[in-house]
Design brief:
The structure holds two protein chains of two kinds. In chain A, 48% of the residues lie in helices and 8% in strands. Chain A is α/β, with parallel strands linked by helices. Chain A has three domains: 3-114, Alpha-helical ferredoxin (Fumarate Reductase Iron-sulfur Protein, Chain B, domain 2), CATH 1.10.1060.10; 119-267, Rossmann fold; 272-392, 3-Layer(aba) Sandwich (Rossmann fold). In chain A, the strands form two sheets. A four-stranded parallel β-sheet of chain A has the order 2-1-3-4, sandwiched between helices. In chain A, β5, α15 (298-305) and β6 form a beta-alpha-beta unit. In chain A, α5 (69-80) runs antiparallel to α7, α10 (178-189) packs across α19 and α17 (336-353) packs across α18. Chain A is globular, with a radius of gyration of 22 Å. Chain A starts with 7 loop residues before the first helix and ends with a helix. Chain B is mainly α. Chain B has one domain: Fumarate Reductase Cytochrome B subunit. The longest helix of chain B has 35 residues, at 83-117. The chains are: A alpha/beta, B mainly alpha. The A-B interface holds A 3-13, 15-22, 24-25, 36, 41, 51, 55, 57, 60, 91, 93-97, 292-299 and B 24-25, 28-35, 45, 49, 75, 77-78, 81, 85, 165-169, 171, 174, 258, 260, 262-263, 266-267, 269-271, 273-275, 279-285.
């Protein structure tokens, strides 16, 4: 086992876990499965056992213990059964940065060749076609075809001040097409000098990092930064929180990064967006990658509160405590049933608020919640925040 | 051989083993890759990390000290999660830290400064720490802080073995750790009780120097005094009692790097590192 996949801090964190179990109460996977082997504490303990067997005092004296295929396979299942929601780290009394640690453990597992088959297929798609769906990357802006009144440049200008980075899910999944469609309309109507990268936009690398292939993201990062710079842009806007988070954490760039909610809020403050009064009762779901991972909680709430006629109700678990919808951490690829079970919990929580509509700022959350609600034949209405803003704009 | 010599003969190798164990753990962590220094050797990584820590500390020393006190020793986060756990943990941590500090003051003043005062008159103030007015207070605080450890340990045991919250999973290591602490504290108090119950032990200087006036034992060594009430009729070899306390204490030190107790150091690092990093929520404001 190659420990160089982890940082010194992460190796120290494995020893810092006191097995207090505080994380268990908040782990969405544990709440569904109830298995010790699949919760944050269990993962750390197994890794600790592996390290001791390979590098401990006993191993120094008598040689390292061989890792059994069975044990590593089981460990791989534990590590990949995670939404990367990061709530365990937030609640950890000794503040272990668990989200980063889980990503590090995935890198260790990739190095050992133990990762789910679907993750491998996704990796091949991203590295060969530059998107998660494996389709032609020029189809990334196919959703534009359904829009009326497109300008000649089809929002793909030679140069612009701002680049709108769409992200793979919004680009390739029809259920999420309304997100970029509504956002480009907002940008257009408010006179923002923006452009899309079109087929030159490559996957941000988040799925690779989430799958344990961090090293493979370098080419994607370099290409995307060059693409944005070639447009002469100084800022990038994201409607995908995972792309936003990945750029923040892994792209070392001087470009200004905005989540769509932050950008819309600025437009509201500048008086470029004004709303009509429409009475509606809504609630808001904090996406893990926008909330806990990126710390953006207030921007979407301020937008909703600034809309006349909108009655905003918080979910029982909101903000830092917001529960994952089940769509995070590639869980859907590994265990779709478990992902749907988490979505069902989320739907129950939404229904309990009595809201007519749930709003969120993540295309993956929209997709996960909506598809589960449809399967359950629940008439749940969900809207991405840009769609909601556009509908209410004067 | 006097107890000082015997103590140091055991203490020095124990400390060596402790530091060896700590280095063993540290060298394991240094196998990890340091961002921006991917090709660095273990020693280079150590140098980089120490220099980052040193520079970081001196940028805002007051902030780091505040975090050490509030978030590490007094574990502010745990306070928000469970008052019971916080109390048990804080009594243990604060008890150990405070006992260590008072013991260091006591050892340094009576062991070194008093000795040096014979040649450097400036240090003659140290006599107040040995036989003067400060001594009873030093002894009292040592007793009091050790008592806090005992209370913290008992609270932790009640939670683990009787309250048994669902989230808790007790393993061998947890049992060993808690009983080890309980044994160390209780054996210390038992020696004290025996010394108070048997004045000849002090007169014969069986233990290291003790200058607490007999009349002050009831408040200076309040728990030892309480135990002494039950020990008057009991005769045990006082040397055996001493070894039965000191040897496990030293074994405990050697055991730290290889046990759950290592989190005393590791979780201090994780907490400080967490507070020091820029929190994402700042982006929102």
């Amino acid at each position: 086992m190659d420990l160089s996949k982890l940082s010194p801090k992460q190796l120290l964190e494995i020893d810092a876990c006191t097995r207090c179990g505080e994380c268990l109460r908040f782990c969405p996977i544990y709440s569904q499965k109830g298995e010790e082997g699949i919760n944050p504490r269990g993962k750390i303990q197994v890794m600790k056992k592996f390290i001791r067997g390979q590098y401990g005092l006993w191993a120094k004296l008598f040689g390292p213990k061989k890792l059994s295929e069975e044990d590593v396979k089981k460990f791989s299942e534990m590590v990949y059964h995670c939404t990367l929601c990061g709530e365990c780290g937030l609640q950890c009394p000794v503040s272990i940065d668990s989200r980063s640690l889980w990503l590090g453990l995935k890198e260790v597992l990739v190095d050992l060749g133990h990762y789910p088959k679907n993750i491998g297929l996704m990796k091949n798609n991203v590295l060969s076609r530059y998107n998660i769906s494996g389709e032609d990357n020029d189809l990334r802006v196919e959703w534009l075809e359904a829009m009326e009144g497109l300008p000649d440049h089809k929002y793909q200008k030679e140069r612009a001040e701002v680049v709108y980075f769409i992200g793979c899910v919004a680009a390739y999944f029809p259920m999420a097409h309304k997100i970029p469609q509504s956002f480009v309309k907002i940008l257009d109507r408010t006179g923002v000098d923006f452009t899309l990268l079109g087929g030159a936009e490559w996957c941000c690398g988040f799925p690779l990092i989430g799958g344990g292939f961090r090293k493979e993201t370098q080419e994607l990062i370099r290409h995307n930064i060059e693409g944005v710079k070639a447009k002469g842009a100084h800022s990038i806007i994201f409607s995908c929180p995972s792309c936003y988070h990945t750029w923040h954490e892994n792209y070392h760039t001087d470009l200004k990064l905005f989540d769509s909610t932050q950008f819309i809020l600025n437009l509201i403050r500048e008086g470029k967006i004004q709303f009509e009064e429409k009475k509606i009762r809504v609630t808001y779901h904090d996406p893990c990658d926008l909330g806990r991972a990126s710390g953006i909680y207030e921007a979407p709430r301020t937008i909703l509160r600034s809309m006349p006629g909108v009655e905003f109700i918080e979910l029982a678990n909101h903000g830092e405590r917001c529960k994952c919808c089940g769509g995070g951490g590639l869980l859907e690829m590994v265990d779709p049933e478990l992902s749907a079970a988490l979505a069902r919990e989320k739907i129950k929580e939404i229904q309990a608020t009595g809201a007519e509509l749930v709003i969120t700022s993540c295309q993956q959350c929209v997709r996960t919640i909506l598809s589960t609600a449809r399967r359950m034949k629940i008439p749940l209405k969900i809207s991405y925040i840009t769609e909601f803003v556009l509908k209410h704009m004067r | 051989m006097d107890k000082h010599t015997i103590f140091y003969a055991m203490f020095i190798p124990s400390m060596l083993l402790f530091f060896l164990g700590m280095w063993f753990r540290l060298s394991l962590y240094l196998r990890g890759t340091l961002e921006g220094a991917e090709e660095a050797t273990q020693w280079e990584k150590l140098r980089i990390l120490l220099s980052r820590g040193w520079r970081g500390f001196w940028k805002r020393p007051d902030w780091y000290i505040r975090i050490l006190i509030m978030d590490v020793i007094f574990h502010r986060k745990l306070f928000g999660q469970s008052l019971y756990r916080w109390l048990a943990h804080t009594l243990l941590v604060f008890g150990f830290v405070a006992t260590f500090i008072v013991d260091m003051i006591k050892g340094f003043t009576t062991g070194y400064l008093v000795e040096w005062s014979h040649s450097v008159p400036f240090f003659s103030f140290a006599h107040a720490f040995e036989k003067g007015g400060i001594r009873p207070f030093l002894d009292f605080f040592l007793e009091f802080f050790s008592f806090l450890i005992l209370v913290g340990c008992v609270l932790a045991m009640i939670r683990r073995f009787f309250i048994r919250p669902d989230q808790l999973r007790t393993e061998e290591e947890d049992i060993v750790t808690l009983f080890f602490i309980l044994y160390l504290v209780l054996s210390g108090f038992l020696i004290e009780g025996y010394r108070i119950a048997h004045p000849e032990v002090v007169a014969n200087r069986v233990y290291m120097a003790n200058f607490t006036p007999q009349s002050a034992n009831n408040w200076v060594s309040f728990f030892g005094y309480f135990l002494s009430l039950f020990m008057k009729g009991i005769t045990i070899n006082p040397h055996f009692l001493w070894y039965a306390h000191v040897i496990p204490c030293l074994v405990w030190f050697v055991y730290i790097p290889h046990s759950k107790l290592l989190h005393i150091f590791t979780s201090s690092v994780t907490v400080i590192a967490d507070r020091a990093k820029q929190k994402p929520h700042k982006r929102d404001r």
